[in-house]
Amino acid sequence: MHQLTIAGKTYRSRLLVGTGKYKDFTETRAAIDASGAEIVTVAIRRTNIGQDASQPNLLDAIPPSQFTILPNTAGCYTADDAVRTLRLARELLDGHPLCKLEVLGDPTNLFPNMPETLKAAETLVKEGFEVMVYCADDPIQCKMLEEIGCVAVMPLASLIGSGMGIVNPWNLRLIIDNAKVPIIVDAGVGTASDATIAMELGCDGVLMNTAIAHAKNPVLMASAMKKGIEAGREAYLAGRMARKYYSADPSSPTSGLIGS
To answer: Quick check: pTM over 0.70?
Structure first.
């Protein structure tokens, strides 16, 4: 199977994972290892990656030598805040340009503020960032983000942390069919079958955090998500049979039957 390519770098895994909401860094690392993920996203405003030398550093548990660190702007509600946050992240990560942009519009539902997201994306791309962007499942705005120069577009499946799965597969198909950059579902996955469906639709990958971290057994769920992603990708490449409503189609040959 073709590997996932983002900003010129290839990855074997199409599962991207977050690092928040675990009980400690040890559980975080165990779940990430079970997931097989190579890209790991970190909320710069909530997680220490060197900002505070007196506190445990996540990068000791998840070193950049082993994983691609994807700093994100979770908790930002304006373009200016998001840009400042990612400038700090780039300094902390020695000039690392890959980042995840998210600008939220509401603290309750965490839906993206798309005007601010578009504004921030323009600034960051001009400053040389490789922007992977969380956004609404709006085919027009997704295309706008691609045309700005984002290296991956990441529409939500449903609200962040909701576990509701893919609520609008038709919009996702419109986005996928019109895209020239990777489309990665970000937010809303609840279990492995949700991840499988996203991949069967043709998504290039899935990013998740809560679905793993809030499972009763996060490490086991991480393993399930890995398998779900792989199964969905293989099914997409294989090409499912056509649906035939109101028409049976025997699986065995009908010619040469006894008595016929």
So the answer is: yes
How many CB atoms within 10 Å of residue 224?
Answer: 20
What is the DSSP secondary-structure string of 168-213? -HHHHHHHHHT-SS-BEEES---SHHHHHHHHHHT-SEEEESHHHH
pLDDT at 253: 63
Q: Whole-angstrom Cα distance, residue 88 to residue 150?
A: 19
Q: Are 221 and 17 in contact (CB under 8 A)?
A: no
CB-based contact 96:109 (threshold 8 Å): no
177/153 Cα distance (integer angstroms): 13
- What does the buried/exposed string (b/e) look like for 156-177 if buried means 16 or more CB atoms within 10 Å of the residue's CB? bbbbbbbbebbeeeebbebbbe
Q: Which residues are catalytic?
A: 100
Question: Is-contact 71 93, C-beta < 8 A?
Answer: yes
Residue labelled with tokens 């996060």: 218
Euclidean distance between CA atoms 46 and 216, whole angstroms: 23
Q: How far apart are CA 72 and CA 86, in angstroms?
A: 7
Hey, which bits of the chain come out as E strands? 4-6, 9-11, 15-18, 39-43, 68-72, 98-101, 130-135, 152-155, 184-186, 205-208
Name which of 161, 222, 169 is nearest 37 in CA terms: 222
Mind listing the pLDDT tens digit for each residue in 112-141? 999 999 999 999 999 999 999 999 999 999
Strands 4-6 and 9-11: antiparallel
Phi, psi of 112 (to 5 degrees): -70, 145
